[in-house]
Design a protein that fits this description.
This protein has 338 residues and is of the alpha+beta class. The chain has helices at 3-30, 190-194, 223-230, 253-256, and strands at 41-43, 72-73, 76-77, 126-129, 157-159, 175-180, 186-189, 199-206, 212-222, 238-243, 248-252, 262-267, 270-271, 281-283, 296-302.
Amino acid sequence: MNKNQGRRDSNLSSAQRREFMKSAAVLGTLAGFPLIAACADEAKPSDLLVKRDPSKPRIPPGQTPARIQPSNVAGGEQPQVAPQPEVSPDADAAQTDDVEADPLKPSEAESTPEAAQPEGTLNDPFYYDARKRDASGQLASLEERSPPGQKKPQPELTNMLPAPARGDSSRDRFRLKVHGEVESPFELNFFELLKLPQTEVVCDIHCVTTWSVLDVTWLGVTIKHLADKAGVKSSAKHVIFEAQHGYTANVPLDEALLPNCLVAHRLQGSALPAANGGPVRNLIPDLYFWKSAKWLTGIRFVEKDEPGYWEVRGYHNHADPWKEERYSWQEPDGFRNW
């Protein structure tokens, strides 16, 4: 088989996979089960990445700052990248609500003088670098940052689902309910969320469908901050992330409260696009990306674990990419105790 023939076969296979996902989404919607996986973002090649200068990192309270140094990858320096454009890379798939004014643009940002601002503001968030590092503290090589079974990392996200599966991306209509095994349940709108302490997280994300994206920058409020605000009871052991269309994802409480886990409203320096779950999604970067639910509506703390949308459809209950926990048949006997 010659080189051109191999390329045609590869393209055909990719096209067939996309058509299959679209057909499955439509059929699932007709059957009453909209295909709304949180990790249904698809990586596509691009040279557009936003890098944050980490020379003065900010970190959440109680964390020990790591030594941030210019990173090198195996085989030489990281490639130079162009600045992020004003228009989202997913703009061709965005809904009308995506054109709402960005509340964090400089002209509309908080006008308090920088010296008077408290820590963790929109303009000066805490900073947490969650990327994998080697024993010396240097950023690990690309190979070391890729879990087993993942393909070559790609630099950005784009939507892979048809429009009917998308959620409501309106910031004005957004509400987040924090409830369950808590002392003081509460509800937030989008602009109240912006007033809470903000954290910027740089991390790598990995989808169960084998794609990965490295060096992704998110901005939002840590789940731990919301948990502390609600007063989580000692009886709570798990977190259920609730999203539009009835989608849910379950995560152990101790993992959801790690400092790299957010309720995120910005991606790569811009407002989170609708195609990627905007206005708000949760971020659990240490697990496969379906655990990071798009179009988030609620955070419910529970005593007993509850399988989520994909967990009851054959996917692993825990979903650790470094252990390749992809499917339910991989779970040890008795792992699911609901």
